[in-house]
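Researcher: Final request for today, and then I'll write up notes for the group meeting. The sequence and the SMILES for flavin-adenine dinucleotide follow.
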Amino acid sequence: MEVVIIGGGPAGMIAGITAAKEGNKVTILEKMNTLGRKLLITGKGRCNITSSLDISEFINNVPGNGKFLYSVFQKYTNKDILKLLNENGVATKVERGNRVFPVSDKSQDVLNALIKELNKNKVKIITKARVYEICTENRKIVSVKYIDECNNETKLRADKVILATGGKSYPLTGSTGDGYEMAKKLGHTITKIMPSLVPLECRNEDLELCKSMQGLSLKNVGMKLVNLQNSKIIYEDFGELLFTHFGVSGPTILSSSAHLLRYKNIDNLLKSGQVKLQIDLKPALDFEKLNARVLRDFEKEKNKLFKNSLDELLPKKLIKPIIKLSKINPDKQVNSITKKEREELIELIKNFTITIAGFRPIEEAIITSGGVDIKEINPKTMESKIIKNLYFAGEIIDVDAYTGGFNLQIAYSTGYVAGKLYE
Ligand SMILES: Cc1cc2nc3c(=O)[nH]c(=O)nc-3n(C[C@H](O)[C@H](O)[C@H](O)COP(=O)(O)OP(=O)(O)OC[C@H]3O[C@@H](n4cnc5c(N)ncnc54)[C@H](O)[C@@H]3O)c2cc1C
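Model: Predicted protein-flavin-adenine dinucleotide complex:
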């Protein structure tokens, strides 16, 4: 069988390896000049390959249609991808949060291993080939058309096509959403495309505040996104948070975005300023303990001015904003700060609040939420329910996971299943 794979990301590469091992003649068409451009930037260039959690726990880490992946996660697990990489010279290690990385800390090594395996299995790779049409006859695949680097149009016969063009984020890596258009033309539904695992923008009134702390990364803070309309917590986490010129980013914020985008009536809540980020800057100390700590500090610094008294308590970039928000006169001597003022200061440190305006654009998202409707894909085979011999793999499908290696595992597992032959 002639198998044509559109897109040479991790999903397309695993699909290619699998289809070739099944005895097919396989071609990968990739529009960029190399395979796996996005893979190279994963994990800040270190590639968080997968998670070391038991595969049964993966679905819990896929807020976007996780159940659809039940069968594929069983068929190709984290152990399978690590075995394949090990066989091709990539040793791996497990870090905090069950995250698996190459020992070398180089995503390039992961990519090289996959390319080595593709070559071993004689998969033909055509780069700089942008596919623009999947041709069908009687709802069955017959060929694909692509434009090569010299702008020539070529038609390639295909008995089976695996569409693995990824999502829409980080378009410079090649993932520009072409696959959505091709799938749509063939009758597929594309669900709402949204950025996920994406930084959050603050509202105008807090912009100067965030800008003034730009670059400040807080390692161990508590954070909550709260719906002010009903005082309910939308998302709560503990860990790292980063201030930027537009608002906030960092692991806790990225994870929170996956919840926020699914929250009922979120557009209206954001528009009306009803979503607050509350940061507990000292989560290890409750109000009483922090009060005692501040009292001790103030005792030590009693003859200093308030503006010079917080150096031991807070990171440098936070001091000015906290002083400003506290409404205590910065030039007031510490020993004249009242109990009420001190308690309000502590409340501020435990409850540092920023109003959220919305998401950064999809171009800056780690992952795309939305895509080819899962109702139109057979979850056991990844075959389209609309077009015979059309398969889907990876981020193009309407599934999305948290950070931690789960998104790449989705690419491998769906790629593997899409590449298999089914009678
Ligand atoms: C900054 C960043 C960091 C990330 N870090 C991690 C991480 O550490 N761990 C993790 O699990 N996930 C991570 N992810 C998510 C992960 O990269 C994706 O889930 C994964 O790459 C999806 O694989 P894919 O093969 O489906 O799509 P992609 O990797 O997007 O590959 C799709 C390919 O299709 C090609 N293509 C598109 N259109 C056409 C066309 N018309 N013709 C031919 N080719 C085409 C593209 O050029 C691209 O090479 C990260 C994402 C980003 C943006």
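Model: The first strand starts at residue 2 and ends at 6. The chain has a mean pLDDT of 97.
Researcher: Thanks, that's everything.
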